[in-house]
Hints:
It is a single chain. The protein has helices at 2-15, 25-28, 44-57, 111-125, and strands spanning 34-40, 63-66, 72-80, 85-96, 99-106. It is α+β, with helices and mostly antiparallel strands and 131 residues long. It has a five-stranded antiparallel β-sheet with strand order 1-5-4-3-2, with helices on one face. Helix 3 packs across helix 4.
Amino acid sequence: MKKLMLAALGVVLLGGCVGMRDITANDLRKPEHAAQTLYFDKSVQQVNQALFEHATGCRSLGTISADPTGSRIVVTDEGMGLTKLAVWALVDIDADGSGVRLTSYDYYHNKNTRHFIGEVINAISDPKTCS
């Protein structure tokens, strides 16, 4: 009987880990996870400055990684995965002609990840307005 109870407890505990996955940025960059694409008449440097202003005046927007060449910024929202941090939402900001192209990806397609993407967009549009 004790073995049966322990086995049942093990199944329940492992069941709680089903939603946790080790999702990487590359896992998210697939069509099924694409959320939206927008264009801004700003340079990558202007977008980076807007994100910095928003982070210092309002709050951090997760992990912001700027490419040393100045042609790309990646903003990620991360949480606990099964064995490491998992990327739940991702915003790629790439130089595109005279502006930037913002492409967002969302693993869970829920209110929290959509809110994160909206916050990044708002920070680029108006960095002084906190949401």
